[in-house]
Amino acid sequence: MNQWMNVSNTIKCTLEHFDFRSCYNLALETWNNMYDESLFMDDKSLRPNERKVRNELVNNKQDWQYELSARVLQLAVHDLAQGWRNFFNPQMPNHRQPRFKSKKRSRNTFTTDRAQVINSRLRLDRPHGCTSWYDIRMAEPLRWIGKLKIATIVEEADGYYVALAVEVDDSVAVKSGHVVTGVDANIARFDYRNATGYQSVSTMTAKLLRLYERIIHYQRLLARKRLANPSHFRSHNYRATRYKLQRDYQKVTRIQMDLLHKFTHQLVQANDVIAIEDLDNLHMRMNQRLAKNLHRSLFGRFKEIMQYKCAWTGVKLVMADRFYPSTQRCSQCSFVKTGADRIALDGNRRHHTGHDQYVCYQCGASMRRDQNAVENLIHYAMIN
């Protein structure tokens, strides 16, 4: 189980003793040099791996590394090795080759597997030579009882937060499977069916739209400042505007995650079997006209949350194939529209039907397009 919580701002002086980005970049440089050497010598035994890179960095430590916790270097090499494994894994085609972490884009973060929670305070491993060290006050106690595996501290716009991974008993009772529903993902909303009928949850509220307008405004201000003075644009006003932009991005993320977590919690508590679409988010966002709205609709994040919450609660999650015609198939007679009869983003011009209207040309059934897709997903879940 993972738990995010706020920690006191006194952790700032604690994080100054860690530099995960530098260790990661140093490990990647060593990894690349080892690989180039193996190609030059034509000797596969010289190929780099996690153990070789870690030993090389430990044997040739720089002076500033002695001031860090030993886990910084070890976990940085471990993350790098995992990145290379993901890159060569055919089951993860979207993972790219590990790259150097930029100081401009990287967040101040630290990960350790030796953290402890004692008297509602977080205790981190103390670096060598550090005399001023203390436990960190947390905003809330642990929600689960178990062994603390990993603690990741991240600096956000308004403070510092820690993600605690706790190992708990994973025995889950599988639900009976009598209550079945389907969730149709659309731009700015999710449609589903419950005991009272068809429902819709919006993912683009009025508050989010106002925040998006403010983000656009601040981005334009920063762009103008960089354009007007490209050499010395980091003035006090520039930093203040950048901070406002970061706060608005943080607010957007929190509102979106709050909506998703409440909606997914409601789904897994009220249903035994849930069917969703396995959408190809990467290629869908290649549409320039819809890329921004698709990104804000959180299709990929919704699928990730549903996967682990269904595993936690014993709910069966059915992933409909991405080529399953849930929108084109009639839920009454199973007729599938093809060719010029298909429903596009602007409806069907040949039959003069709108985007949100589904009319079957075989049985004559007429209903909302989203309701028809939900019924098709429910039928797909019942036969799989």
Structure commentary:
This protein has 384 residues and is α+β, with helices and mostly antiparallel strands. It has three domains: 1-169, no CATH class; 180-320, no CATH class; 339-383, no CATH class. The chain contains ten helices and 14 strands. The strands form four sheets. Strands 10-9-8-11-12 form a five-stranded mixed beta sheet, sandwiched between helices. A four-stranded antiparallel beta sheet has the order 1-7-6-2. A hairpin with a 2-residue loop joins β8 (180-186) and β9 (189-194). It is globular, with a radius of gyration of 26 Å. The two termini are 29 Å apart. The mean pLDDT is 84.
Number of helical segments with 4 or more residues: 10
Could you tell me the radius of gyration in angstroms? Answer: 26 Å
Structural class based on helices, strands and sheet pairing = alpha+beta
- Gap from first CA to last CA: 29 Å
Give me the side-by-side strand order of the main sheet.
Answer: 10-9-8-11-12
- Number of discrete domains: 3
Low-pLDDT stretches are: none
Number of strands: 14
The coarse silhouette is globular
Largest sheet: 5 strands, mixed
The helix fraction, in percent, is: 40-55%
Topology as H/E string?
A: EHHHHEEEEEEEEEHHEHHHEEEH
- The average pLDDT is 84
Strand percentage lies at: 15-25%
List the helices and strands and how they pair.
Layout: E1 2-7, H1 11-15, H2 20-41, H3 50-59, H4 70-88, E2 109-112, E3 116-118, E4 121-123, E5 136-137, E6 147-156, E7 159-167, E8 180-186, E9 189-194, E10 197-202, H5 206-228, H6 236-270, E11 273-277, H7 281-284, H8 291-297, H9 299-313, E12 316-320, E13 357-359, E14 366-368, H10 369-383
Parallel strand pairs: 8-11, 11-12
Antiparallel strand pairs: 1-7, 2-6, 3-4, 4-5, 6-7, 8-9, 9-10, 13-14
